[in-house]
Amino acid sequence: MTSSYRHRDENTFRAMMPELSGNDVNGLGQDGPKRPRTFFWHPPDRQDFGDLQSEVVGHQRQAPELAMAYSRDADRGPRPIEQAAQTSPGSAADWNARVKAFASANEADLVGVTETRDEYVYEGYEVPYPRLIMLGVAMDHETLSTAPSTIEDMRSALEVAGKYNQAARASRKLANFILETGYSAKTFPGPLATALNMIPAAIEAGLGELGKHGSMINREYGSSFRLSAVATDMPLSLDQPDEFGADDFCLNCQVCAKACPPDAITHEKHKVRGTEKWYVDFDKCIPYFGETFGCGICIAVCPWSRPGVAGGLIDKLARRRDRTNQD
Ligand code: SF4
Ligand code: SF4
User: What is the b/e burial string over 13-37, where b = at least 16 CB atoms within 10 angstroms of the residue's CB?
Assistant: First the structure.
């Protein structure tokens, strides 16, 4: 433990919550569809949780290795190059294949393409590019499973930070590849939120389904991955959502809900900006998330996240569907 470390527990952060509920900001119970409002992870002057965010980030920065991983000195990829004056020829399907091949060879484990929609863009921001390339970077599940982090054992938090940096590098390398071909490109690396609400776009791009724990479930990595994105005017063909049964599985699974210390995961779907979906109670999650340097328990315990398990689950779900159809 660092000698100057000052522990903040979840009560410290709970006491700093503004009067406003984060669930209202996130659109819980709202008819829609509506654009999402800026929230906790946006720059403090653009949202209502700025003081709380500063305290949570300040708590994280007390751990020297974590502070380094999130610092300007971390390797988050190359600077943007100049866009070529002429666009290179290619069909939409060719570009889709070339983008996937490049990203897969340059630190991305998942790649999918979708169109930009208003409901992915936070109020007060613009994403003036017609297409989004969503990238995923797999986490080491064994390390992730040491969650929650403490000041004495920072392994899971460091794994998350390292993979956000890898996802940033993957997006910046891909953006430069696109700029070289004469098309425009803008990166959206995490972990701080920017213009783009990444999860709905990544679902539409085929990277996975939304789980009860509010994170995505991919058919290979479960919830053990992090996202980044590149917006572009490159004429790419679009990918389709990948529905392999995770949503159905969540209906009968309670693993994440039972494992969540502040009981933030609910068993029913809720209406959020006009869409019925799984939703995690922000006001309950964030104080514990702050205390534990990013928590991560729910994504670590999700059965889909265990290496080698997802394929068997998909087969089991398919057999169950077949039996139901025969009855
Ligand atoms: S991140 Fe932690 S506190 Fe938040 S929902 Fe998941 S398990 Fe619960
Ligand atoms: S732990 Fe179970 S309920 Fe939670 S997201 Fe994973 S599959 Fe769904």
Answer: bbebbeeeebbebbbbeeeeeebbb
